[in-house]
Amino acid sequence: MVPDADNIPLINDDSREHKVTLKERLTSCRWHVGYVTCLTLACTMLLRINMSMVVVCMNPPNMTSLVVVNGTNYTVVDDYMKYYVEWDSTMEGLLISGNYIGQMITALVLGTMSGRYSSKYIIASMISVMAVSSVLTPAFVFVSDYIVLVLRIIVGMATSGLEPCATQLLSNWAPLNERAQMMVLVETARSLGGMMNYILAGLLCSIPLFGGWPFIFFVFSGLNLLVLILWACLVYDAPSIHPRISTTEKNYIHLHKASVAQNKTLHIPWLQVISSKAVWGCVLGFLTYGFLFISLAICLPLYFEQVLELDSTLNGFASALPFLGRIVGAIIFGYIADWIFCKQWLSITNLRKVFQVTGLIGSAPFLIWITYLGKDDAILAVVLMVVYWFILTAMNSGFRVNFADIAPRYAGLLNGICMCLNGFISIFVPIIVTAITPNGTKEEWRAVFYGCVGVSVVGAVVFVVLASGEEQEWAKDQTSDSNLAITDAGNKSIDFNPSTTTDESAPLTFNRLKENTDGKYLTRYTRDGQVFVQQLELLDDIWSLVAGN
């Protein structure tokens, strides 16, 4: 028997109160997608930043000996030296920057594609290109430096599609109260990949065969090809096309997130995008982080080699530890951000700003401290660098999540814009760092670190002034004629946007919705002034009701 419509309670937005259990994190499809995305991006980081260790590993060791023949001194060079190449500082900077040169070329195009085409297949294609280019690199090292640079640029061109597509993918899957935790998986991936890169590269370059360094390219490419198997089996672009997702989880995701259209004809309001303060808050927050990442993570092995005088293996482990701090920080600050949101202590806008400022300003004193340490304080310097990166990752619950806040339908596009601009400045950062530190002295690196502190302060101020946490009007789906609104007495609404409707369904409004214990839904809706009550098996039945079926 259909119950009285007046006895059906109004729907409430309980997303803030929902607590993600450990079982959900281990068994839900949305978190499976998140974990595999994290692992996949982590493996791609091995190919993206491995040159920062390769240039260290390829520096020729002291493998000469002095012999005396008939009273004449001769210097004998070990035959093993033929496997090493000594690049000048300019070429080192270019090779490290090669990834970012390529990233700048294609970031905007691939970022735009992420909102129109399958993120799953774009990422799979890009990984294949990166792996092939990296496998070919050792073969051309002794042929031409510029061919190696071109291969690095190709890797960068493929790289630029990864984060925009991953951002768009996770935006499709993340409920509002899990958004910060799921979005920081992108940062966790960067940190995990960076840590794996430095540890594994440090070990691989110690292999007594061909100088060790070619194995960095071979092993890392192989890992990326293996992870594609998991990617193909477990990742889907949206809950609606996942073959194994439960009805309960699908409905939960639909009810607690903005609907993000996957439409090949998606219109991009470019004028509103480039004139939006909120967008520029995101972009400049991204660029601030990108500058710090290149200066203090990618170039970190050079600092440890030149100032702290660590050998290649120890350098690898030391360079990996700050990435461990980033992983822990991203997880902890992401959880705290979602917890504060659920408690409703801060608005979305203020929440993002607080975490951005905490990361940028709270970490600065530790970076200043490091500038006064030398090789005798190597352990303390490494510890402080770990603490610095731990605190800095608080900003991932600021700018990185902000894409999905202000424009969930264009999250991939905005990330692509940021990747393009970040690629541009990242071309010059390693070159500038190597130019400022030609002798690798503590005083030269102090200038680099103080420059990073200045960027942090300016970046924090700019984000506070420009950033917003509210979805922008131009980013909302404007197809109001086909909107189905589940409302709370006209004050709140969760919009559903079915792909097709009929004229008959246009006036349809759901004003009460209740989920029964058996998973079925009771609705009260109006059409042409008449009130109807109906029991629906699934939320998907709403589409049939809207279409007049």
Task: Itemize the secondary structure elements and their pairings.
Elements: H1 22-27, H2 29-48, H3 51-57, E1 64-69, E2 72-77, H4 89-113, H5 119-140, H6 145-159, H7 162-173, H8 179-204, H9 214-234, H10 247-255, H11 270-274, H12 277-298, H13 300-306, H14 312-343, H15 348-370, H16 378-392, H17 399-406, H18 411-436, H19 442-466, E3 484-488, E4 492-496, E5 509-515, E6 521-527, E7 530-536, H20 541-546
Antiparallel strand pairs: 1-2, 3-4, 5-6, 6-7
Please give a handful of descriptors for the protein shown.
globular, Growth Hormone, Chain: A, 8% strand, three-stranded antiparallel β-sheet, disordered C terminus, 549 residues, single chain, 20 helices, two-stranded antiparallel sheet, mainly alpha, disordered N terminus
Describe this structure in words.
The chain folds into two domains: 14-61 and 88-475, Growth Hormone, Chain: A, CATH 1.20.1250.20; 479-546, no CATH class. Strand 6 (521-527) and strand 7 (530-536) form a beta hairpin. It is mainly alpha-helical. The protein has 20 helices and seven strands. The protein has a three-stranded antiparallel β-sheet with strand order 5-6-7, with no helix packed on it. A two-stranded antiparallel sheet has the order 1-2. It has a two-stranded antiparallel ribbon with strand order 3-4. The protein is globular. 48% of the residues are buried. The longest helix has 32 residues, at 312-343. Helix 5 (119-140) packs antiparallel against helix 6, helix 7 runs antiparallel to helix 8 and helix 14 (312-343) packs antiparallel against helix 15.
